[in-house]
Specification:
This protein is an alpha+beta fold. It has one domain: Peptide Deformylase. Helices cover 21% and strands 24% of the residues. It is built from four helices and ten strands; from the N terminus they run βαββαβββββββαα. Strands 1-10-9-6-5-4 form a six-stranded mixed β-sheet. The structure holds zinc ion. The site of zinc ion (ZN) has 5 residues, from helix 3.
Length: 229
C-alpha cells in the first residue's frame, strides 16, 4: 500500500525550490487549532482530541533509541491518535513518539494536506540531495538549513500491523527523515555543520524554554508499555 505523494507525481515540481512549495514554514502553516483547555498534566482535549505535552530538547527521551513495536493493539492505535492530534494542534509537519514521551518506533506526518503514520520505519534514500529549512517541535522557534536526501521510500507497518510503504520527495521526504532520526535519538541540530551547530547551541542556551524541568506524567493517558519517562 502506498500513501502520500509519489516520487513520480512530485517530479514535475522539482524545478521549484522548497520555499516556493511552502518551505519548512509549512510547519506553522495550519491555523485554527487551539482554544483548548489545558489540564494540570499539560495535556488538553479539543472535541475528543488528545493533545499531549511535547518534550523539549534536554529531555533524555529525545536522545534514547526507541524500541520496535511488536504489539499492534488498541494502545498503539491510541498512540497514533495522540501523535496525530498533537501534531495537528502544534501545528507541525511531523511528530515522533519520543516527542510525547513514548519510546516506540512510530511517527506521524502532515504534508501538503495529507496526514499519515508509520510504524517501525526502514528508509531507502535517494542519492540526490536537497537543501532546505527545517524546524522541530522540540526546539520552539528554531529553524536551520539541513541537507537531506531528496526522496525516500519508507517501509514499515500501519497501526494494525499491515505492511505500509510511504514514498515521497522534498517536504514529505524531509519530514520522514527528520522523524525517523527522532526514533534513533538523532536531532536535527546533529545534522548542522559545526558553525551552525554552535549558533544553535547558543540560541538554545538563551531560549526561555531551555533548562525547564523535564515534565513527568504521573498518570499515563494510555498504556506506554513501561517506556514512558
Ligand atoms: Zn523534530
Amino acid at each position: 500500500m502506498v500513501v502520500g505523494p509519489l516520487l513520480g507525481r512530485k517530479r514535475d515540481q522539482n524545478h521549484l525550490s522548497t520555499s516556493q512549495l511552502g518551505g519548512w514554514d509549512a510547519w506553522n502553516a495550519r491555523a485554527g487549532w487551539g482554544g483548548a483547555d489545558e489540564a494540570r498534566d499539560g495535556t488538553h482535549t479539543i472535541l475528543g482530541m488528545s493533545v499531549q505535552q511535547i518534550r523539549l530538547f534536554g529531555d533524555p527521551i529525545l536522545r534514547t533509541r526507541a524500541s520496535e513495536v511488536v504489539d499492534f493493539d488498541k494502545e498503539l492505535r491510541t498512540l497514533v491518535t495522540d501523535l496525530t492530534d498533537t501534531m495537528l494542534d502544534a501545528p507541525g509537519a511531523g511528530l515522533a513518539a519520543p516527542q510525547i514521551g513514548v519510546g516506540l518506533r512510530v511517527f506521524t506526518w502532515c504534508v501538503d494536506g495529507e496526514v499519515g503514520h508509520l510504524v517501525n520505519p526502514v528508509l531507502d534514500l535517494t542519492e540526490e540531495e536537497q537543501d532546505g529549512e527545517e524546524g522541530c517541535l522540540s526546539f520552539p522557534g528554531m529553524r536551520y538549513d539541513v541537507r537531506r536526501a531528496h526522496g525516500v521510500v519508507a517501509t514499515g507497518q500501519d497501526m494494525y500491523g499491515e505492511p505500509l510503504t510511504v514514498s515521497g520527495s522534498l517536504m514529505l521526504a524531509r519530514a520522514i527523515q527528520h522523524e525517523t532520526d527522532h526514533l534513533d535519538g538523532i536531532l536535527f541540530i546533529d545534522r548542522l555543520d559545526p558553525e551552525q551547530r554552535r549558533e544553535a547551541m547558543r540560541v538554545i542556551r538563551e531560549a526561555t524554554w531551555s533548562g525547564e524541568p523535564v515534565p513527568t506524567v504521573k498518570i499515563s493517558p494510555h498504556a506506554t508499555f513501561g517506556r514512558a519517562r
